[in-house]
Design goal:
Shape: globular
Order of helices and strands: HHHHH
Number of domains: 1
Helix content: 55-70%
Radius of gyration: 14 Å
Distance between the termini: 15 Å
Number of helices: 5
Structural class: mainly alpha
Largest sheet: none
Number of strands: 0
Strand content: under 5%
Low-confidence stretches: 1-5, 76-80
Length: 106
């Protein structure tokens, strides 16, 4: 069960740091999918959020140079990114951790 205070905490992190909450939620969903795939496949322990994010951020940064930016940096679809994770990785990771805590899994 999520507490209203925790949920608003990660969203407040996004507002304070100029991050797109939809981007944070999307990246967290990708982490959860990674964990589920890893655990179901018997591949051993999945990476903790901090280590996975470091890898994921490098992947996104390498793709950023080959893709056209999204209009106005807004979240139009699942593949458009505001690039907050590249510009502000520490703040983005803090928001991810807060979201994970509100979801009750890390």
């Amino acid at each position: 069960m999520r507490s209203e205070e925790t949920v608003s905490g990660w969203m407040e992190n996004c507002r304070r740091d100029g991050l797109d909450a939809a981007e944070v939620r999307l990246v967290y969903q990708r982490y959860r999918a990674y964990r589920a795939h890893h655990e179901k496949g018997g591949r051993g322990d999945p990476l903790p959020l901090e280590r996975w994010f470091g890898w994921y951020r490098l992947e996104v940064a390498s793709e950023a140079g080959t893709q056209a930016p999204s209009p106005s940096g807004c979240s139009i679809d699942d593949d458009s990114r505001n690039r907050g994770m590249i510009r502000k990785p520490d703040a983005f990771l803090d928001a991810l951790k807060a979201l994970a805590a509100s979801a009750g899994a890390m």
